[in-house]
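batch_manifest entry 22 of 60
target: MFS transporter
source organism: Brachybacterium saurashtrense
requested by: lab member K.T.
priority: normal
notes from requester: please return tokens only, no post-processing; we will run our own comparison against the previous entry in this batch. if the run fails, retry once and flag.
--- input ---
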Amino acid sequence: MGASAPSGAVSPRAYAGRGPPVTDAPGVPTVERVTASPPRTPAGASPAEPRRAGARLTLTIASLAMIGPFSIDTVFPAFTRIGAEFAADEVALQQLISAYLAAFAVMSVFHGPLSDALGRKKVMIGGLVIYLIGMFGCVIAPSLGSLVLLRVLQGMSAGAATIVSRVVIRDLFDGAEAQRLMARVMMIFALAPAIAPLVGGWLLLLGDWRWVFAGVGLYGLAVLALTTALPETLPPADRTPLRLRSLLGSLVHVGRSPVMLRVAAATAFGFGSQFLFIASASIIVVRLLGLGEQDFWVLFAPLIAGLMGGSWMVGRAAERMPRSRLITFGFVGTIASTAVNLLLVSFLDGEPGELAPVLLLAVTGPALISFTVSLFFAPIQLEAMDLFPHQRGAAASLGTFFALVLNALLAGAIAPLVSDTLVTLGLTALAFALLGTAFWTWHMLTRPARLRG
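--- output ---
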């Protein structure tokens, strides 16, 4: 057996499984070293242990990823009661979401580099503790202003769970197994946007709106308990110095890399072709389709089904197709699915608000787009992290930040401008798919030959 784990370390036997674990090869963390790094050996691992992700690890990573949707979507059903208690209108209540998202976006830049310096587990646990303080603080919030400030605290800390958990996957696993685990996590994660509003509604049956924050806080406690059992996947020898200059230097080094910028742009624009429909959901469902405020499931159910189906396909293809080829297939498929969507909605007859009778045509396209986007979304995140084997946290953080910025522009500026009809929405989705594919093609043509395949 291998060397015993140091004090406080947790053996990864319950988490991993296939092939002998190998430590990172030494080297200078520059972008020129664009080779996929083998997975690290967590403390306490035996070099003879097989490495395969178990159900417990999958559940833990998925639970960490679901912190984001549960922090946002469970709150929506409570808006009416919060507004009644604090005499707040819809604009004021929207601050509960925008404050969380703004704080999440700003801090998303730093969670990854902090995990490169302190270790993955410390950052995730520290972030969860701060998140829980903010969540349970909402239970006793005396005013809307204090509620908004506590939501800022939640947003600042939630990324420690959602972003760093993805890096743990790549730390523990390489190649097909990393892709397979990422796909399983995405399948479970896809359920969160559908479940969260229902959970929020059920919690309101117990009492006032404070029960919603208490319930999500209890979920956070359960996730914290699962996280404490995770192994630390970044050995001290592989960490970057904990100095402000080093942290900022890591971000600058990754962020100024043309290779990283191309992959981040491909990810953001490609995902934007799907997120456009999420950002325009209220316009599509109520104004364009003429449905009611309780009918959002009509759009979100196909989107979630497409995401789960695509993620399942990614897991199945892990050992059958090289990662880069699967990503290319996903981008080309997204061009095709957005084109099919545009063709379908061009056949719709009737004015906006009178399209419910032909609902199937309107939602088939978004479901197909969600399916094809999920074919590249998980694998391309692994691609970005493999560009910087010693700065995976920084790569994950910056990739998330770029996507959040584009999503904010989509929700706040682009979606309202292009949502006059389903046709204009379809044209915009096709444009985003073309842009994402162009950046990915550029990356494929310029990256080192040893990474192609």
